[in-house]
Amino acid sequence: MRIGTNHGSLSDRIMSRYGDSPSGMVESALEFVRICRDLDYHNIVLSMKASNTKVMVEAYRLLVYRMKIEGMNYPLHLGVTEAGGGEDGRIKSALGIGTLLEDGLGDTIRVSLTEDPEFEVPVARAIVNRYKHRTSEPALPVTINIGTINNFSPFDYQRRQCASLAGIGGDNVPRVIADFSAHRELTLDDLKSVGYEYHEPTDKWYVSDSAPDFIFLGTSECNIPLPTTLRLIVDAHKFHSFTALDSVKVYPFYSSPGEFAKRVETGAFCNFIYVDAAEATDDFIQQLKRDHQAVLVVGAKRDHWLATVRSLFFRLLNEGLDLPVVVKRDYQALDQEDFVLYSSTDFGGLLVDGFGDGVWLAHNSMLKSDMNRVTFGILQAARVRISKTEYIACPSCGRTLFDLQETTEMIRVHTEHLKGVKIAIMGCIVNGPGEMADADYGYVGSGPGKITLYKGKEIIKRNINSDVAVDQLISLIREDGKWVDKQK
Ligand code: SF4
Q: Cα 253 to the chain's mean position, in Å?
């Protein structure tokens, strides 16, 4: 028997005591587990589903912790509910499920997409297959007791506090670094592919909401005009040749602490220093305490990449070292599908724990536009940087009262420019409202050809005809002051 709690459908009693929080979800499930145990029934699997990945990850972790305290150890079924479809649905699923698998939690999984069911299984297999050949050697040479980490809880999101330097860290949203180091020279077409479009007659830049904040050039050249909001990171040896670009901020990159130690003073305002999380020595950490003009770029070569990188964040917290940290990983060997899933787990898993002031995904053979879209998709799925509309759509089932994929697409065409707005599209009114948890608006099937519109949890229009429902949804968003016209 599966005892499953859904973030969006907690009882009033639980809500009034715990709110719609991970602890409410856990308590709700444990009430029923205790009944089963009183009856000596133990064939139980537990699930804690939410479409909010932070809530989902925290709820499962808290459940395991609470079970341990109460001397239980039932298996877990993992899933991100109402993840939506397409790439965003895959990113959300891999982020939530993968993060827990990296923690060593989870016994069965379900990837739930707003697509035909046969498309869910290959995604689920790809997520799980990553662990088939995972080394059994421990991620770290020493065991870390989570309770001894300053200002960190695995059950409660809190972004790691750090200084702001070069626009990274502090209260800034996590920054995105696009890696163009494999290009011989940066071109206007390169910039256009990631959201910076130059309009020559007016000498103006159009900048997309999902344009990177930094470009890593390595040793490549740049002989084009650049928008003043964009910053460059260049190989430290090339730094001097970029100082002539005085309207653009340029920073040197050191590929190891050793290279940084041997540096010739460049006068740079800020240095980017790469360090392998498993190889950061105590000396280096102490040196960083004295060097306040550094942004740490952290990666790892180990199989247990996430745990290794996270362990360095733990060290920084315990050392009180508040430098901004960019997380970097190279995915050259992966095809596009695995790249989307694995990067979502790796980066998302750190971001939902409040780690990462910048993200830097590298893959030389993938289109930069694809890389950029995936990067911003991960930030959105972790809810740490919102650059587009969020759709919470049910996977559909026998109860579904309209063509979910077609309707979701129709709603998306009209609303995809509404940055930050969360729209739920649910197939039925039996379970839909309870599963759309923190959506701003709900479009819910309430009878054949009938739709009920919600604002939050409140019904605004009941049983309207489906042929006018999308227009009515737009009117509702407009009346609410959240509508903006699409930019031409
Ligand atoms: S139609 Fe209703 S029950 Fe079926 S998946 Fe959608 S919300 Fe859940």
A: 26
> Residue 235: pLDDT band by 50, 70, 90 thresholds?
very high
Tens of pLDDT, residues 365-413:
899 999 999 999 999 999 999 999 999 998 888 889 899 999 999 999 9
Q: 314 and 336 share a domain?
A: yes
Cα-Cα end-to-end distance for the chain: 53
Q: What is the pLDDT of residue 246?
A: 61
435 lines ligand 1 (CB under 6 A): yes
pLDDT tens, 308-330? 999 999 999 999 999 999 999 99
Q: Which residue has the tokens 């007659």?
A: 201
CB-based burial, 375-394: b 16+ in 10 Å, e otherwise: bbbbbbbbbbbbbbbbbbbb
Does the beta carbon of 394 sit less than 6 angstroms from any atom of ligand 1?
yes
pLDDT value of residue 290: 86
Q: How many domains does the chain have?
A: 3
Q: How far apart are CA 192 and CA 153, in angstroms?
A: 40
pLDDT for 488: 62
pTM for the predicted model, two decimal places: 0.94
The pLDDT assigned to 243 comes to 66
**Cα–Cα distance for residue pair 14/19, rounded to 1 Å:** 7
Range of the domain at 439: 390-479
Over 80: is that where the pLDDT of 140 sits?
A: no
Nearest to residue 87, comparing CAs of 360, 367, 391, 330? 391
The CA R_g of the chain, rounded to the nearest whole Å, is: 24
Measured from the Cβ of residue 115, the count of other Cβ atoms closer than 10 Å reads 21
Q: Indicate which residue's Cα is closest to atom 4 of ligand 1.
A: 397
* Token pair in block for residue 111: 């990837």
d(CA 343, CA 328): 10
Burial letters 461-476, b for 16+ CB under 10 A, else e? beebebeebbebbeeb
CA 317 to ligand 1 center in whole angstroms: 43
Same domain flag for 359 and 234 = yes
Pocket test for ligand 1, best of 9, 392, 400, 405 (most atoms within 8 A of CB): 400
Q: Is the CB of 484 under 6 A from ligand 1?
A: no
Q: Are 354 and 253 in the same domain?
A: yes
Shared domain for 283 and 197, answered yes or no, is yes
Q: Which of 185, 172, 166, 188 is nearest to 250 (CA)?
A: 166
* Residue 249 in this model has a pLDDT that exceeds 90: no
Q: Does the beta carbon of 396 sit less than 6 angstroms from any atom of ligand 1?
A: yes
